[in-house]
Design a protein that fits this description.
- By secondary structure, the chain is of the alpha/beta class.
- The protein folds into 2 domains: about 300 residues, Zn peptidases (Aminopeptidase); about 190 residues, 3-Layer(bba) Sandwich (Glucose Oxidase, domain 1), CATH 3.50.30.30.
- Helix content is about 30%, strand content about 20%.
- The protein has 13 helices and 22 strands.
């Protein structure tokens, strides 16, 4: 791996040396020099190209992307901040676990005879969320939507004893014409599968079975292929292994499996699914048959991924030990049955945005505090690169603020979602809003700051790794839906003008933060 990195880095440095300098990249625009649309386009087209094969963490494509970013940072005058002072790369050791294909689910009659057995991959898919495997025979309970919502006096577990049993639940939530009840027909946080799994765990369940979220949209084979890529977790002793919470075992069932499973119950799956699609109430009950669940993961392999880190030291001796971190994840989901998932918006757009900010600061300088540029790996695998960086950061107390760019190239050129800017320090939001008003004048949408956001966007990108440590953070996001995690997320659909506006906003915000006379004061203690 190191040999590959050295060869690729050498090639890209030679390519960088043959390219033009800053001043030949185009005439200054309305943005701070040298922010340039052509330069943004060039980096985007490469990172979201067929050659990069979707930049999946731990693959050769990730290595190529990391090496390219490193070479560009060197061109911009950014200094290495990786594993040592000579490299931009920080090795992130990951543990790769794959769901054992010998896993199975069997229904057992009271007499002890086996009614039917379902096989992994053909009848159900395992999990990419690691849990301690088990082999157990226990009760099987259908818990409807699997929701506990005290404010609506609603509890699918109210008349059930699920302690030590496997819980089967469907997607969705109750709906009505009354917006005071589960927000009427609008989806709420209670439809989140993660919340449903947590409710099952809180109720004492031993495991969860749910219909696949993706079979209807992507086909069953794509679901299986995705799961069979395995589960990645942090291996480092300072990070993932001793800090990961125990997760409730769960699997995803194929539609035909659900139909067969419910044939041993008082209700057919088609009837229950119709009720769920309508948002109607669902019955709850315990199956007459028991269930034998043999769910486990195969032994783990150790595999490396790579954060890319650079720094522009501050000019003030009294402040240069304080850091502003500007970050984006550069990984995506790689290649699947449908082809290459190019990840142009998710997140080549944020990656090239941070690169352009680094280029501008490297050219203009003027930062009193040091500025770190963090290109995180394995965000798509559970924020692993950013978790590793924050947990292993040298004196992370010196990180004054963090700005995260994740999907910034789609939607209206005049608006962007701003997420989390006042969760820890309202002063950060004030600074961002003031800079925006004085520069690009984007319209901020704060929808995802709602603590009841059903999509839980605040918790789903790299800024959260920083925020959990009490570091004031803001996340800029475009909420692109139509091509999200699809092969159609391509470079030709990116609005370069929008990317440039956000680059200008973050560049100016970073410069103001780096020269602030005081540190940002937190408003509240962060719950980790």
């Amino acid at each position: 791996m190191i040999r590959i990195l050295v060869v690729l880095f050498s090639v890209l440095v030679i390519m960088a040396g043959c390219s033009s300098g800053h001043r030949s990249l185009g005439d200054p625009s309305e943005y701070s020099y040298p922010i340039n649309l052509n330069h943004i386009r060039g980096n985007l087209n490469f990172l979201a190209s067929e050659a990069l094969e979707g930049r999946e963490a731990t693959t050769k494509s990730e290595v190529l992307a990391a090496t390219y970013i490193s070479a560009e940072l060197q061109k911009y005058g950014v200094l290495p901040f990786g594993d040592d002072s000579t490299t931009f790369l920080q090795r992130v050791n990951l543990k790769l676990l794959k769901f054992d294909p010998q896993s199975s689910v069997s229904l057992i009659e009271k007499s002890g005879d086996t009614l039917t057995t379902f096989r992994c991959d053909s009848d159900f898919a395992g999990s990419t969320r690691y849990f301690t495997g088990f082999d157990t025979t226990t009760g099987l309970v259908f818990a409807g939507y699997g929701i506990i919502a005290d404010e609506y006096n609603y509890n699918d577990y109210r008349n059930l004893d699920v302690r030590g049993k496997i819980v089967l639940i469907l997607h969705g939530e109750p709906v009505s014409e009354d917006t005071a009840y589960f927000a009427g027909k609008a989806r709420t946080k209670y439809s989140s599968w993660m919340r449903k799994v947590q409710s099952a765990q809180d109720s004492g369940a031993a495991g969860v079975m749910m219909p696949s979220w993706s079979e209807e949209q992507y086909g069953w084979q794509n679901v299986v292929d995705y799961v069979n890529k395995g589960s990645l977790s942090l291996l480092d002793s300072l990070g993932g292994e001793n800090r990961r919470k125990q997760r409730l075992p769960m699997i995803s069932l194929r539609m035909r499996t659900l139909e067969q499973l419910f044939s041993y119950s008082p209700f057919s799956y088609s009837d229950l699914n119709h009720l769920a699609e309508e948002g109607d109430s669902l019955p709850t009950f315990e199956f007459d048959a028991s269930i034998n669940a043999k769910w486990r993961f195969s032994p783990a392999d150790t595999i490396p991924a790579w954060n890319v880190l650079g720094i522009i030291p501050g000019s003030d001796p009294a402040l240069r030990d304080e850091h502003i971190v500007i970050g984006a994840h550069y990984d995506h989901v790689g290649v699947g049955m449908s082809g290459i998932y190019y990840g142009a918006d998710d997140n080549a757009s944020g990656t090239v945005g941070v690169m352009e900010i680094a280029r501008s600061i490297g050219y203009n300088r003027g930062n009193a505090r040091s500025i770190v540029f963090a290109f995180h790996t394995a965000e798509e695998k559970g924020l692993l690169g950013s978790k590793f960086l924050v947990w292993n950061y040298p004196n992370k107390e010196r990180i004054m603020a963090h700005i995260n760019l994740d999907m910034i190239g789609r939607g209206s050129v005049d608006s962007i979602y701003s997420v989390g800017s006042d969760r820890i320090s309202s002063e950060l939001r004030d600074i961002v809003e003031r800079v925006n008003k004085n520069t690009v004048q984007l319209k901020f949408n704060y929808r995802f700051d709602d603590p009841n956001d059903p999509e839980r966007i605040y918790y789903r990108s790299d800024h959260y790794s920083y925020a959990k440590e009490g570091i004031p953070s803001v996340f800029f996001y475009d909420n692109m839906q139509e091509d999200y995690h699809k092969t159609t997320d391509t470079a030709d659909k990116i609005n370069l003008e929008k990317v440039a506006k956000i680059v200008e906003l973050v560049y100016q915000t970073t410069m103001e933060l780096s020269n602030l006379s005081h540190e940002l004061e937190p408003d509240q203690v962060v719950k980790k």
